[in-house]
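The data are set out underneath:

___
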Amino acid sequence: MKDRRLTVMFPVIALGVGGAEQQLLEIVRGIDKNRFKPIVVSLYPGGELEPEVKELPGVELICLNRRGKYDFLILFKVWRLLRQKQVDIIQPFLTPATFFGLLPAIICRTPVKVVTERCGVRMKTHIGYSVYRNMEDFLTRFADWVVPNSQAGRSYLIERGVSPARIHLIYNGVNLKRLTCDPTEVARIRASMGCPSNGRVVGIVASLTPAKDHVTFLQAARLVSEIMPQVRFSIVGDGPLRASLESQAKELGLSFCITFHGIQRNVGSHISAFDVACLCSVDHEGCSNVLLEAMALGKPVVATDLGGNEELVEHEKTGLLIPLRNPKALADAIIACLRQPDWAQAMGERAREVARTQFSLERMVKEYEQLYERAIQAKEGVKSQQPLGRPSG
């Protein structure tokens, strides 16, 4: 490999709060700047994570200021950047950033093209999203590597026709520094919810979108509150369903015991305020950041049994797995944790050990660095010795 820093470009839709965006932030924050030059390219400006990316030393942030969904001039802008910056590796995140990154990279003959698969949201059925996903599936044939963050994501890729030989699994890493909390702030959060001294808090951190199924969480909250009225419920996150969910909470008679906190960057304090952490996803999860963060804080977790959740949570060992769209099962699991605190705490402690040892941030960043260097070395070997053919991997 040439004795120089490798330039790695990361196209992304925008830098809002989301699991993929958070992992992108962690990669560019942790990557060795003596060996790599990371460039984050956002299609749209703004987003809660943008200020954090701007402040990272050694990281360049470029916004393409896309003017709407029909602005395909972005393709030329990406192509021009690839040439100007002499990009060695391109790794886009999420649809349609994958399309707008891969196509110019193929035309420009960018040496290494890496596709990331988060086990993707599949409930978006509108035609625009479907068209982009179909085009991205085709373009993925020209990628050198496809990186899922779970075995579930790997299986999904194989179903879509990706060769197993080009799939390289890298699990997410949890940023423990992001989880530091102030006990005073935790007490304030619990007090703001009207939590009595002997009360408990059950919480969920997730975007307020159909894929996360907060409706089931609300219905379970009603069942729990009928038996344990001292329990309070915390919803951290925001999204297009907020107004309807707040209305449903009121209709269910939960106004006294449920709080919508909106987006919170001090996620460590909010999760620390939970006695039980939930995730009710009904769409496919890959390697859930929220589950890892709750586990790393030693919280008993209750999650739906789908996608990569079972790869993180071992039922009745490090948490509880429940069926999809089943408020009673969720309520029963919550009540079991609250009524058996020693048992729940033991699950939480085992979960903490798993999250901190097997899903470290340092491990994730190192695996990406190794993939980049391996891919470039293979390309240079092919260029000098084998003009035709793909690296064996």
